[in-house]
Every structure is written in C-alpha cells, then in structure tokens.
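Quick start: read one record
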Amino acid sequence: MHSKKRLKVFIDGYLLNKEHQGTTTYIKELYKEVALLNPNIEFYLGCFKDKKIIDEFEFISNIQFINYKNASRVYRMIFEIPKTIDRYKFDFAHFQYVIPLRKNKNCRYINTIHDILFKDYQSLFSKKYKFQRDFLFKRSAKKADFLLTVSEYSKKAIQKHYKLNDKNIYLTPNGLNNSFFEKFDKQVVKDKILKKYGFSDFILYISRIEPRKNQELLLQIYLETKLFDTSTHLVLIGVNSLHNLKLQKIINSLTSNQKEKIHFYRNIDQVSLMDFYRAAKMFVYPSKAEGFGIPPLEAGAVKVPVLCSNTTSMESYTFFNPYLCNPNNEVLFKEKFIHLFSNLDLLDFDEIQNEIKNKYSWKMSAKVITSILNNSIDKV
C-alpha cells in the first residue's frame, strides 16, 4: 500500500493555537523535521486558522492545513476529527495524549503521552484533573497503534501505571531549534530588554504557573537573599494553568519595593522570549516534576548559567552539575543558588551548549517518526 501511493498523515495541532508550552513546541518543531525528511509524504495539520502558524510552515511544501470549525475539543474528538480522517482517507493520525473514541480501521493512530505526572505526584493535582486524564490517557495508551513519549522517566511511568510492559513505547525526545545555538551580542540584547521593559539585570524562570512548577521556591529565595535591594530583578514568564496557593500567598505579601523588582509576564511573543533567555543573568528551574523539561535546556543552549532541579526526567541533565539539585531540599537549593550567583563566570558554557546540542535534536526524533511511517521500526 505504501509503495503505490503517497502516504497521508494527519496531525492534531490544536495546541498550536494555545499559549507557548512544551507540547506546542513538540508538534511544531518535530513535524518541520519530519516533513523535510519525507518530501513524498503529505502532512495535514489540524488547527484553527492563524497566519502566524501558517507562516511557521510556509517553506515546507508538503504540509497543508485543515482548519477546525468547532471550538469544543470534546466535539472535535468525537465528531469532527473522525469525520475528517474518514473523508481524507488518512493512513496515519498523530495525537497528543488522547486519541478519538472512534477509530478508523484503515488509519493507524500515533499517540504521544508526554507524561503522567499526576500518577507519581498526586498531591500536586486536583481529583478532577487526575480522574479525567487518567481514564483518557490510559485508554489512549492501550488503543494507539504506536505509543510515543519524550523521556525514559515518562516511559517507565507509563509502563508501570498502565501495565504496558509488553507494548513498545517509542522515544521521541524534545529537541532545540537551531536559533538557540546562534551567536549573539549579549549587551545588544540587554539594551533591547532595557528599552522595552525598563531593566536588564535579571534572574529568569520560564514555565507555566501550577503547583508542580514550584515558582514559590525561587521567589522565596529571591526575597530571603534580599536581591530586591540590588539592581537584580526577578522575571517569571508563563500562563497560570493551575492555581498555586503557596505562590499566591507570597505574592500577596510583597511590599511595594519588592513588587517593583518582581515581574510576571504571561503571553510573550517568541522574539521577546528569546531576548529574555539571551539577556538573563542566570536561569533557575526548581520544578518538582517534568515529563521532559525544555526551558533549562534552552537557557543552557544560549550559554546562560542554569540552576536546575534533578527530579524526574531532569536527572539526566548532568551537564548542569554541580548546579543540579533536588528542589525538595530547599536549604541546599538556596545554597546552590547563592553559590551560582556568586560564580557566574566560572562555568564552561561552550561544553554545556555542545552537550545539549549533541543530545537533544529534533532530527533524531523525526527519524523515529519516519521509521514508524515506513513500517520499518522495531525498537527504540
């Protein structure tokens, strides 16, 4: 079948219309590489019409768009997407976390479950959150023809909790866009941030706001070390996904002087986001749990000093040693913070950047997808 006609692949890209997050990057960057590696395969991205998204893929001729009509994801998964798969006669359909309830017998379903952190860190998630996802993720993991995840940690968790030791789970780790490895003038970028935001000396944390992300630890350390009395600001970028009561209590207690030095930004465009990465004095990532954890890698790629959590999937980020630390040990994490802040120029930035570049490549994950599409993959 595959040798007689061009393969047609559907990608559920609704997350492309959402705020910046790891899964959004995964869909976008992975399928840029997959499409370039497979010029004879037709790829169709399902999402809501957006010129910015179209522009992202304009240089790739074998990617087309199918514009969603219904705003409800539930409706789309039950009715709109299955009908679309039937109509276009797709050979493969790729989803994130959840596949439709009805499967087309002539289409093979690929599903990437990035993590099931709510199984190992239940206290960090509400009962409703856990119940909805557990049922849907488990069903989708078992029903998918090809199951993917992004890290060894997530692979082991899925096998354990969903009893899937006999099912092959393919690894498609996140990679980094080449723009993170480009040379730049740090002073020029700092001047750009200063002109736009009014400061250029800052510590950075980029991630969604929810309990497991642990922004409160960084904020607490920043306050305890009284950095608000210096020229160093604190910048936290990310949308509020799940309410974090501990973080909110600290924010509510801030003085006017402290508030002037602490900045929360939600929707930052990609150009400004890159500027923040490049201009940062240091990057701190105290997250308690990640299925992968892209932001510290992006910071390390632009040669910014990084203090990173060593829990879950991040335990493999050994190139950040000795600034790889368990955030549950708050005393030690604070000590590491102070030590890094006092020794910012002593790290081998080139070595860290090279390790990240060599280990995390979208092209490597794209080859896994390519093998699946060509029915020639056995094990990862």
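Residues 8-175+361-373 form a domain with the Rossmann fold fold (CATH 3.40.50.2000).
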